[in-house]
Amino acid sequence: MGMHEQFRLDGKAAVVTGGGRGIGRGIALALAECGADVAVVARRPHEVDAVANEIEARGRRGLGISADVMDFTAIPKALDQVVEDFGRLDIMVNNAGGTLDRKIYALPEISLEKFDEQLTFNMKTKWWGAQQAAKRMTGGGRIINIISIAAHRPSPGFGVYSAANMGMISMTRTLAVELAPKKITVNCIAPGIIVTEMLVETMNISEQKAKDSFAQVIPLGRTGTPEDCAAAAVFFASPAAEWITGQFIDVAGGQPN
C-alpha cells in the first residue's frame, strides 16, 4: 500500500454524533470524501438529512439518524441501525458535546443539576458511545473522541465542561489499553477556537467579531475551521494511524496548553 493510500477509508462504515452542523458535519463529509459510508446522528432531523444528502453527493452511502445522545437508549439503537444498513461499524466519532443551554456558569454558582448535565453531556455520553461502538466493531476499529483545549487550562464560566474534557483524555487512555486486544484504537482531538453556531450563541457575539477578536490570541493568526479538525479525524480513522492509540492532538493554531 502506497503512503497516500493509507489515508483512504474505502469500505469502512463510520458514525459521527453531533454531525448535523459545525465540526461534526465537517468530519462526516471528510470521512465520506476519503471513501467511508457515514451515518450522522444528531437531534434535528432536517440537519442530519441534509448532511446525509451531502455525503451521498460525494458518492458514498449516507444515513441521517435523529437521536439525542442524552437519551441512553438512543445510541445502541442508532448503532444497530448502522450495522443493519451498512453491514458493519468501523469508525465511531463521539463529537456531540458543549453546553446544552448555551449559558455560562461559574463553579461557585453552578447548580447540581447543571453540573450533572454538563458532565453527562461531555463525558458520560462519549464513554457510552465508545462502549457501545466497541461492542459492534467485530473486526477492529477506530474510536475518536472530540474534546476541547479547555481540558488543559482554567476555563472561567466553563469549569465543568473543562473538567469533563480532561476526564475524557484519561478515559481515552484507559479505553485504548482495554480495547487494544480487539484491535480498536481510541484517540482524542482537542479543537481550539472554531467559530461554530454553538460558540456564537454561547458568547452572544457575531461570527465575524468572534473570528476577528479570537484570531488575535492565536499564534497562527486565525480561528480554526471544521475542516482543520476533520483532517485530524481522517488521520486517526485511517490505516496510517493503525499503531497510534491513547493519544490526543490539539488542533488549535498553536495556542499553548
Q: Roughly how many Å is the radius of gyration?
A: 17 Å
CATH class: Alpha Beta
> What low-confidence regions span 5 or more consecutive residues with pLDDT below 50?
none
The H/E string reads: EHEHEHEHEHEHHHE
Strand content: 5-15%
The overall pLDDT, averaged over residues, is 95
Count of spatially separate domains: 1
Pairing-aware structural class of the strands and helices?
alpha/beta
CATH topology term: Rossmann fold
Spatial arrangement of strands, main beta sheet? 3-2-1-4-5-6-7
> What name goes with the CATH superfamily?
NAD(P)-binding Rossmann-like Domain
Q: What percentage of residues falls in helices of 4 or more residues?
A: 40-55%
Secondary structure tally: strands: 7
Q: What CATH architecture label applies? A: 3-Layer(aba) Sandwich
Total number of helical segments? Answer: 8
**Main sheet characteristics:** 7 strands, parallel
Architecture overview:
By secondary structure, the chain is an alpha/beta fold. It has a single domain, classed as Rossmann fold (3-Layer(aba) Sandwich). It has 8 helices and 7 strands. It has a 7-stranded parallel β-sheet with strand order 3-2-1-4-5-6-7, sandwiched between helices. Helix 1 (22-33) links the parallel strand 1 (13-17) and strand 2 (37-42). Helix 1 packs across helix 8 and helix 3 (74-86) packs parallel to helix 4. The longest helix is centred in the middle third of the chain and has 25 residues, at 112-136. It is globular, with a radius of gyration of 17 Å. The termini are far apart. The relative contact order is 0.15. The model has no long low-confidence stretch (mean pLDDT 95).
